[in-house]
Amino acid sequence: MKRVFKYRFSRRTLYLSAFYILVLALIGLGLHSLYIGGYLSAWFVSLVVALFALMSLSIPRKIVVKKATVEILCLLDMTEIPRMEIASVQRVDPRQMRWVVPLFGGYGFFGYYGYYFDLKTFVKVVVYASEWKNLVEIVDIYEQRYYVSCTQADELVALLQSE
After folding, report:
1. Ramachandran angles phi, psi of 68, nearest 5°
2. 3-28 residue pLDDT tens
3. In CA terms, which of 8, 73, 110, 122 is 20 to 30 Å from 61?
4. Strands 86-92 and 135-140
């Protein structure tokens, strides 16, 4: 048994991504025009290219539910959660996520991913979402919380709770 749940980018995520790219491109062009041949513009461009490359490799693509594992696949990264170690699975209201802030990861650049910090419970959580709607919380037996999003969130919850 293998079931694949795909990510879908929300309009807000795409607008935020375009906004980030536009602002950084304008800053880069401004630095280049102000400091022609200077090190500041070269360092900024190098930093932005490295940041985009790093963030692009972490964009979530799909969730694969197999008989023994749940795999969250990004462009380069894969997180594997053994199904035997899943303690609970539930839908999450997007309003609960207003207390979750980025610690180390992407916020709006083609999704929300990485390590976040929950200000209500003071714990580190892992987020792999392309939108703040249709969120599913997966908690393992080690009390590590994962937040994922997919368009068929109810089916994902039902599938993971069935065994």
Report:
1. -105, -20
2. 999 888 888 888 988 998 898 888 88
3. 122
4. antiparallel
Residue 37 pLDDT grade (very low, low, confident, very high; cuts 50, 70, 90): low
What does residue 35 show for φ and ψ, rounded to 5 degrees? Answer: -120, 70
CA pair distance 153, 92, nearest whole angstrom: 10
Task: State residue 29's pLDDT score.
Answer: 82
Q: What is the rounded distance in angstroms from the CA atom of residue 88 to the CA atom of residue 96?
A: 17
Residue 77: both structure tokens together: 């990264």
For the entire predicted model, the pTM comes to 0.84
pLDDT tens-digit profile of 89-148? 999 998 888 889 988 888 888 888 889 999 998 999 999 998 888 899 999 999 999 999
HEC-encoded secondary structure of the chain: CEEEEECCCCHHHHHHHHHHHHHHHHHHHHHHHHCCCCHHHHHHHHHHHHHHHHHHHCCEEEEEEECCEEEEEECCCEEEEEHHHEEEEEEECHHHHHHEEEEEEEECCCCEEEEEEECCCCEEEEEEECCCCCEEEEEECCCCEEEEECCCHHHHHHHHHCC
